[in-house]
Amino acid sequence: MTVGAVERALKMLETLSGEAEGVDLGALAERLDLPASATHRLLSTLAERGFVAQDAASGAYALTLKLALLAFRNLDQRHLPDAGQIVLDGLARATGEYCRLAVVEGENLVWIARSQGATAGLRYEPPMGSEIVLHATATGKAWLASLPEDEALRIVCARGFQGRTGPNAVDGVDALRQHLDETRRRGFALANEEGELGAVAMATTFRASPDGNAAIAGTLSVAGPTARMQPERHAAIAEALGKAAAEMAGIWPLRRRQSAAQQAPAPNGRALLQTGAQS
Q1: 27 and 134 share a domain?
Q2: How far apart are CA 142 and CA 137, in angstroms?
Q3: Among candidate residues 14, 44, 66, the one where a domain is terminated
Q4: In sequence order, which ranges of 191-278 are alpha helices (DSSP H)?
Q5: Contacts of 191 (CB under 8 A, 6+ apart)
Q6: Residues 6+ apart with CB under 8 A from 18
Q7: Which of 77, 113, 205, 228 is 20 to 30 Å apart from 71, CA to CA?
Q8: Cβ pair 254, 83 in contact under 8 A
Q9: What is the pLDDT of residue 1?
């Protein structure tokens, strides 16, 4: 398979990921700007590998759960959600709001865990599969502010000031530079109806270990409805975020030790069984 074919197949998977009911062949070919014959060949290959299925009644093509299975398998092997869920749950209880953990992947951030702290009233709970728009989210700005300014601006400018955003999202380099300066001074990032209308979020980064020189491993965020996330609460939430970030840095190295222990050979040469692996 050529590089071009791989790119087309990946673009097809990305397109289908946002279509729960599937897409028919003609519409998919038009959206991908491909001939129907080439689109059908790609769909056939992906179907043979179990990534795509065609609905017998409508004829529409949709993703199977195989991609999700592979993603969960990878997360399990890396022990990322396990390492942070206890801290995340504690943050949700302390703030009474929706909390998420994201990890750095190259020049991106990816959500990997969440915890809902709101027990009554409005519940803000956006989908975990949404892309993190770096310039328009507290999570993105917290991470960008940890980078050298030139690098942060390069990453954002390479993508453009695009994506699904709210009415207050920054739309230029000067505004973004100001937001990142404010984030560094405050010690946490704030997004007031920048990611979406009616929501406010706060976020901070955490390191890969308690060492102050360790690399930034990811972010922790707290988000909720504008009506609840008022300025008078920001100091308390920022304090809870700082405490959670320190706790996360303390336990983050443990995920590697846990993985190594589970993969260590038993005395008879066999791999040790992972507790609960079949549950």
Answers
A1: no
A2: 8
A3: 66
A4: 231-251, 254-263
A5: 136, 137, 138, 141, 168, 200, 201, 202, 203
A6: none
A7: 205
A8: yes
A9: 60
Mean pLDDT over 222-238 rounds to 96
pTM of the predicted structure, to 2 decimals: 0.69
Compute the average pLDDT of residues 251-262: 59
| Residues 132 and 13 occupy one common structural domain | no
Domain CATH for 57: 1.10.10.10
**Which residues make Cβ contacts (< 8 Å) with residue 158, sequence separation at least 6?**
none
Same domain, yes or no: 49 and 105: no
**10 Cα distance to chain centroid:** 19
User: CA–CA separation, 77 vs 106, rounded Å?
Assistant: 19
Query: With left for phi above 0 and alpha for psi between -120 and 50, is residue 26 left, alpha or beta?
Result: alpha
Per the structure block, which two tokens stand in for 74? 């990878």
Share of the chain above pLDDT 70, in %: 86
Single residue among 49, 66, 83 that ends a domain in this structure: 66
Whether 265 is in a domain gets the answer no
Are 125 and 17 within one domain? no
Contact indicator for 30, 36 with CB cutoff of 8 Å: no
Q: How far is residue 10 from each of residues 44, 95, 110, 156, measured CA to CA in Å?
A: 14, 39, 18, 22
Mean pLDDT of 7-15: 89
Q: Which of helix, strand or coil describes residue 21?
A: coil
Domain count across the chain:
2
Is residue 52 within 8 Å of residue 41, measured between CB atoms?
A: no
Residue span of the structural domain in which 43 resides: 3-66
DSSP designation for 271: B
Looking at the structure, do residues 119 and 223 belong to the same domain, yes or no? yes
